[in-house]
Design brief:
By secondary structure, this protein is mostly helical. It contains twelve helices and nine strands.
Length: 354
């Protein structure tokens, strides 16, 4: 799926020949997600959750279909909105987003049978990242930590540590089945460990990814490895979202060697994942409808990181703005993953500033 390639260039006009107001578009996308998908879980006060589709096939029931990792990215987008409010001096809006984020994290826990761990380590890595950022938002907007977010982060960190062994030379397993090690868990886990002050673990995962799943021909990271009696079996599919957290982890690990790898990765993303219209390709499918938004989030982080050389920062920013431009005026998504992706891309563009 290539989206609406070329509709708006380089951060381009959203209509009437005027530059897009990414903050306004992000706020509108946020409101649409909350209104069309969000609801209290089982009508419990102090909870929030996102429905899979809008309109739903049936009224929300206590254990309606859901996707843990979609909710993690919903939470990340809520935190994006909160930091946008702080950047604009709107502390009341930031406080509202903080309250929404706390309720969403509580809803995730309740919906997950009163606990944060689940079967998939990549799901847990995504929620660990979002919970960590929610805690940062709480400290910035309210002057105190977010207790539940701290519990989520510490609980999920312990789970991620337990996902590691020396099979295939290291790395984390994708699920409790422990038969696959892949980029979707090792990338966000490396970033999480770097952010919480465990750089040795983060470096070990980044180095393992580079040794085992980096594709020299494309300059991008492959999906994963299956251990087998015949030797490792490589899943060679290249997904947009796998590149994003690896990129951010390389910068968070704060070493010239990793910064060089990050700059090369930005160039490969432009070379291999951009469309003819300049924006990033959009992946198909329900889960896939989140993928490009994830990459844009971390490209925006990279665009503001002085550890990257200026040309790489410029490229990262342009890719985000061009992708956001392709989404302006698109129909309202009927699925939570696609709606959160659009919101995330607009937040990434807004974070770049003018």
């Amino acid at each position: 799926m290539t989206g609406n390639s070329g509709r708006h260039g380089a951060g381009g006009p959203a209509g009437g020949g005027q530059p897009a107001d990414w903050g306004m578009l992000a706020a509108a996308a946020a409101g649409a997600v909350h209104a069309r998908f969000g609801h209290r879980l089982m009508r419990l006060p102090g909870t929030w959750i996102g429905a899979v589709a809008s309109p739903p096939a049936q009224a929300p029931a206590p254990w309606s279909e859901w996707h843990y990792w979609w909710q993690a990215h919903y939470l990340d987008a809520v935190v994006d909105a909160g930091f946008r409010g702080l950047r604009g001096g709107n502390r009341d809006a930031a406080a509202q987003d903080l309250a929404r984020g706390r309720a969403l994290l509580r809803g995730i826990m309740v919906r997950n049978f009163g606990r944060f761990p689940n079967f998939y380590y990549d799901d847990m890595a995504w929620l660990a990242l979002a919970a960590g950022r929610l805690d940062q938002l709480s400290r910035a907007a309210a002057g105190r930590p977010a207790t539940l977010a701290g519990l989520a982060s510490s609980t999920l960190t312990a789970q991620l540590r337990a996902a590691h062994d020396d099979v295939l030379g290291g790395g984390l397993y994708w699920s409790r089945k422990r038969d696959y090690k892949n980029t979707p868990v090792n990338g966000p886990a490396a970033l999480h460990f770097a952010r919480i002050g465990e750089p040795n673990r983060g470096r070990a995962l980044a180095d393992w990814l580079r040794a085992r799943l980096f594709d020299d021909a494309s300059g991008l990271y492959l999906d994963g490895l299956h251990p087998s009696a015949r030797g490792p079996e490589v899943e060679r599919t290249i997904y947009t979202y796998n590149q994003g957290p690896v990129l951010a982890a390389l910068l968070a690990l704060d070493h010239p060697r990793y910064a060089e790898q990050a700059a090369e990765l930005v160039a490969a993303i432009e070379r291999r994942l951009a469309t003819g219209g300049g924006g990033l390709r959009l992946e198909p499918g329900a889960d896939g409808s989140l993928f490009t938004g994830i990459l844009c989030r971390y490209l925006a982080v990279s665009a503001g990181d002085r550890r990257l050389p200026a040309p790489a920062r410029t490229t990262a920013a342009r890719l985000v703005r061009d992708t956001a431009g392709e989404l302006v005026g698109a129909p309202e998504p009927g699925m939570l993953s696609a709606a959160v992706q659009r919101w995330t891309v607009f937040e990434a563009a807004a974070a770049l500033g003018s």
